[in-house]
Amino acid sequence: MNVLGICGSPHPNGNTAFALKHALEIVSEAGVATSYVSLAGRTLAPCNGCFSCRSGECIYQDDMTPIYDQIRLCDGLILASPVYMGLISGQMKVLMDRTVVFRATGAFELSGRVGASIACGGFRNGGQELTLQAMHTFFLQQDMVAIADGPRFSHSGAAIVGRAEEDEIGLTTVENLAHRIVQAIKKPGPAIR
Questions:
Q1: Which residue, among 72, 26, 20, has the nearest Cα to 183 in the 3D structure?
Q2: DSSP, residue by residue, 162-181
Q3: Up-side HSE of residue 173: CA atoms within 13 Å toward CB?
Q4: Strand (E) or helix (H) holding 23
Q5: Beta strand extents in the chain (DSSP E only)
Q6: Quick one: pLDDT at residue 15?
Q7: Is cis: bond before 152, omega within 30 of 0?
Q8: How far apart are the first and last CA of the chain?
Q9: Would the pLDDT of 189 be above 80?
Q10: How far, in Å, are 34, 72, 141 from residue 99 at the CA level?
């Protein structure tokens, strides 16, 4: 079992990276292998809608190419994005768009895998929920199972406000999310037909 965390922040050591690494540490402590990808400094060409990926491969050979392999190998995927103008970062949007290759042939390669999300914003009600919903929409379009942070808060996912290391409630949602993704990938689900 493997949980992949993808950080959609342009800052390699910012709030979003801190929150995601915290989640992956908890997943690792539960005995599940983890891997981490930062989109900071990477070159990802935006999808141009050419649908050449119907052949099974994207026309662009850039920094997305090795990320495809890592996504294909994971059982669980945690996407983490800062809130930019009330939504996901541009880097996260490009990553999500480029994964159309996983479904363009009709195979839905990520079907049944577990997805969870983390949003980091500067202010309470600063767009975290819309950011989480955007990532959940991505999971649903890939036919994945989208999970939330669960009780005691049970919102759309983990949400950080301000400096991640100082947001006690936000870090609790990150910890809950990490525990729930471990539960979800360890628990055998019904067969998808």
A1: 26
A2: SSGGG-HHHHHHHHHHHHHH
A3: 26
A4: helix 15-29
A5: 2-7, 33-38, 76-82, 114-121, 145-146, 158-161
A6: 96
A7: yes
A8: 22
A9: no
A10: 20, 10, 10
Ranges of each domain in the chain: 2-44+60-186
Residue 98 DSSP code: H
The pLDDT tens digits for 108-154 are 999 999 999 999 999 888 899 999 999 999 999 999 999 999 888 88
The tokens for 145 are 């199972």
Instruction: CATH number for 2-44+60-186: choose from 3.90.180.10, 3.30.470.20, 3.40.50.300, 3.40.50.360.
Output: 3.40.50.360
Q: In this predicted model, what pLDDT tens digit does every residue of 22-47 receive, in sequence order?
A: 999 999 999 999 999 999 999 999 99
Report the half-sphere exposure of 90 (CA within 13 A, side-chain side). Answer: 9
